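= Paired protein data =
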Amino acid sequence: MTWIEANLRERCRFAVFEPNHEVTWFQLRGLCSAWLRQVWLDGGLAGANETSAYSVQVGLNETLTQADINAGRLMIRVAVAVLHAAERIEIKLVLKLGDTTAAGTETVGGPLA
């Protein structure tokens, strides 16, 4: 999982200098989805289609509350279907806007959706 987390974090790095609004969320969703799609096409994720292989969520009332936005937190939730387990793994990237060092990752296992 570390490889996926590291690659997603690198792609999302630009966002710490961006405003926490719909345009940034759209860009993040697109960047993460495009990279995960390529991983899936290369055989790196399970799933018969993109929807079952991965999902990306970011935005107000999806991964953020207004309090998160006011505090400068931006959270992205990514779920991936890994090849060698009967579960879907969820990765939550937390970025502190304006601070390139304050970020965390949480990995949660769950049933394959």
Remarks:
- Residues 2-111 form one domain.
- Helices lie at 2-12, 22-41, 50-53, 66-70.
